[in-house]
# Entry
Amino acid sequence: MILDIARHKFYEGIIYLTLVATAAVVIGFSSLEQNVAEIMSTTAPLQPAMRDFMLNHPVASAFISFALIMATSLRLTRATITHSLFSVSSLATMSLSAVVILGVGMHGNMLATLAVGYLLSEAINRICYCTAPEPTLHYMFSANIALGAMPLFDSSMLAPALIAPVVLLLSNNKPREILVAYIGLLLPTFIYSYVQWCLGGSILEPAVQMWQGMLSPSGLADGSYLSIPRLIMLGSVVFVQVCTSLIYLNDRLSISLASRQIWRVLQIVVAVFTACFVLLPSTSPASFMCIGLCISMMAPLTFFKIEGITSIILFFLLFGISLWTI
# Structure
């Protein structure tokens, strides 16, 4: 049934994903000047460049944004299928992640926010392989390269990125793998700093800029981002996550041990992200979107369990709220 996202065939999921991604790009870029005017912070090294690119090349930015939404959703969906996160395969993540991006991420510096979301999807896809018992150094290294690149687009990502390799210790990884993780984490900043130094700048300036940006208020509460529709959207996502966690605790024995390990990592990542964004003043739209994307990987369990008309109503309610936020 095409209305029930928990039981979508692949072509049905692609249709939903394309429609939601198109709606997000059209609505977001139809008010581009207003969104750019509401950019709350440009403290991350690459944020000014992304903002200027959006202003100077709006059509190209719209196509890139559409591609980033599609790639992010497909990457997260592939991870749920490959690692069998549910007892029955479901493509619901494909639609849910796009709805989260529409409701939470299409504000301010949209291109930088979507780049952060794509890097997060790449990191999570590789982190899932890091829970396996065999050596996973190449997955650990590449996952942390993606995590290390995120603060270059949004300074609020610096704290979660620094904590993430420590969280991976909970997946029974060896200290050698954690060392490799931190090398990968620092590599993007080192490369950017080296290029900056070659162009005549200070080699430490990008790191200092990200650190100061992480500790600087983003002005999120002063702008129009935290409107009533968006607060309802955020509350709905949290409600879905609470339901998902309760259902998982009841049904966790129906999936494999490796899948339960991935569930544990995802829940810890959500908790770490939430703690960092609550405690630090630099919270941005990308911060909320990252939490929502992690939740969208687990939420299909709820949609599959409630079944039928209730599942359909819940999804279209979320979709309607996400359109209301724009």
